[in-house]
Amino acid sequence: MTQNTELEVLEAFFAEQNIAPATIANGTALPEKGDFPLHLLPSVLRSYAQDMARIHRVPVELPALCCLAVVSGALGKRWSASVVDGHKTRGNLYMLLVMEPGSGKSIATKVAAPIYELQETRRSTWEQETRPKLLAQKAKLEAEIKKLHHSKKPIDADELSLKSLQLASVERQLKWVPELISGNATTSALARDLSLADDETLWVQSSEAAEVVRVALGIYRKEGTDMDLWLSGYSHDPYAQSRSNLGGGSVSLKEPCLGGLLLVQPSIFDEINSNEEAQSRGLLPRLMVVNIDVVPQKEEGERRLPNEHVAASYTQRIRDILKARFDAAAGIELVCGEEAREVFREFHNTIVDWRTGCFARFASELARWREQAIRVAVCLQIAEDPTSRELTVETATAAVELFRWIGLSTLEVLEKSRLDAAQKDRDILSEHLAGCEVLMSDLQKSLGWQKSKVQKTVAQFPELFKIAATTKGVGRKGQCVSML
Question: I want to staple 374 with a disulfide (CB 3.0 to 4.6 A). Which of 11, 23, 89, 197 is the partner?
Answer without folding.
Answer: 89
